[in-house]
């Protein structure tokens, strides 16, 4: 129990630092690499919660595919690589106030509502359970998401090709 | 483990993403901040799934992952198109509709 909480604390600290790095760094490529830290930490938290399938899907899809897509986007749009070019607009302080206000409200509400609830992870959820639930109860949303991915694929090709 | 520690971590990630969306000028960085928000939402879904001992949380997290992948694909295609037309991916330069 204590080991779980220590692991949570270490991973959560790394994720928080990575998230701040994504929104604060002056180098666009570094932002993508900080995002890898956050997403890998998220996968580790999923494993901590015994939800292994979604953890590995997160590693494969997010870290494997989405980050590479981001790096392609950065390379193709010739982002400002020099530290002197600012990547932020002049809304820095209002945005900081907004997000601190939002996190304050959310934390207050969460502490008020769920202060006594504990997560008991006895055994990891097996992949077979997930897939049987996807292919029986959620088969219609699953197919809809498949069609959506096809539409996104064709749409991206149509948008990005030179004509 | 408390349920709250996961929820508070997710809230922090979400609000960091909100800050990034509001502050960043480069379009790819705005998309990355949206990914941060979606990562927070995923942690919320999975934590509640583990809390209720059901696998619905994982199923919904998978759907969120799929939508995020589609969104990034389309989003980067649009960013590429903006860059090709305006020779800049800076969102402050996209002000043609401003009049």
The total count of helices of chain B amounts to 3
Mean pLDDT across all amino acids of chain A: 90
Distance between the termini of chain A: 60 Å
Named CATH topology of the largest domain in chain A: Four Helix Bundle (Hemerythrin (Met), subunit A)
What helical percentage do the residues of chain B reach? over 70%
The helix content of chain A is over 70%
Q: Which CATH architecture of the largest domain in chain A would you pick?
A: Up-down Bundle
Overall SS class of chain B: mainly alpha
The name of the CATH superfamily of the largest domain in chain A reads: NADH-ubiquinone/plastoquinone oxidoreductase chain 6, subunit NuoJ
Number of domains of chain A: 2
Work out the strand percent of chain A.
under 5%
The description of the largest β-sheet of chain B is: none
Largest interface: A-B, 83 and 67 residues
Instruction: State the secondary-structure class of chain A.
Output: mainly alpha
User: What is the number of strand segments of chain B?
Assistant: 0
How widely separated are the two ends of chain B?
A: 54 Å
Backbone CA Rg of chain B: 17 Å
The geometry of chain A reads as: globular
Number of helices of chain A: 6
Strand content of chain B: under 5%
Q: What's the gist of this structure?
A:
The complex is a heterodimer of chains A (163) and B (99). By secondary structure, chain A is mainly alpha-helical. Chain A is built from 6 helices and no strands.
Structure in words:
The complex is a heterodimer of chains A (163) and B (99). Chain A is mostly helical. Chain A is built from six helices and no strands. Chain A is globular. Chain A starts with a helix and ends with a helix. The model of chain A has no long low-confidence stretch (mean pLDDT 90). Chain B is mainly α and 99 residues long. Chain B has one domain: Helix Hairpins. Chain B is built from three helices and no strands. In chain B, helix 1 runs antiparallel to helix 2 and helix 2 packs antiparallel against helix 3. The longest helix of chain B is centred in the C-terminal third of the chain and has 31 residues. Classes of the chains: A mainly alpha (163), B mainly alpha (99). At the A-B interface, helix 1, helix 2, helix 3, helix 4 and helix 5 of A face helix 1, helix 2 and helix 3 of B.
């Amino acid at each position: 129990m204590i080991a779980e909480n220590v692991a949570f604390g270490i991973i959560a600290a790394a994720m928080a630092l990575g998230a701040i790095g994504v929104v604060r760094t002056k180098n666009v490529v570094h932002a993508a690499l900080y995002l890898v830290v956050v997403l890998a930490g998220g996968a580790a938290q999923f494993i901590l919660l015994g939800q292994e399938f979604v953890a590995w899907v997160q590693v494969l899809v997010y870290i494997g595919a989405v980050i590479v897509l981001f790096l392609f986007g950065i390379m193709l749009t010739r982002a400002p690589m020099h530290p002197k070019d600012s990547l932020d607009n002049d809304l820095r302080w209002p945005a900081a106030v907004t997000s601190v206000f939002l996190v304050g409200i959310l934390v207050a509400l969460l502490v008020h509502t769920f202060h006594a609830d504990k997560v008991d992870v006895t055994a990891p959820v097996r992949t077979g359970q997930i897939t049987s639930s996807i292919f029986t109860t959620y088969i219609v949303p699953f197919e809809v998401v498949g069609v959506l991915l096809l539409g996104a694929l064709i749409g991206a090709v149509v948008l990005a090709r030179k004509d | 483990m408390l349920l709250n520690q996961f929820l508070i971590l997710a809230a922090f990630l979400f609000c960091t993403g909100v800050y990034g969306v509001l502050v960043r000028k480069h379009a790819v960085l705005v998309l990355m901040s949206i990914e941060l928000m979606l990562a927070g939402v995923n942690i919320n879904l999975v934590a509640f799934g583990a809390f209720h001992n059901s696998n619905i949380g994982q199923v919904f997290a998978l759907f969120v992952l799929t939508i995020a992948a589609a969104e990034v694909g389309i989003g980067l295609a649009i960013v590429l198109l903006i860059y090709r037309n305006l020779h800049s991916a800076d969102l402050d330069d996209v002000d043609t509709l401003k009049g």
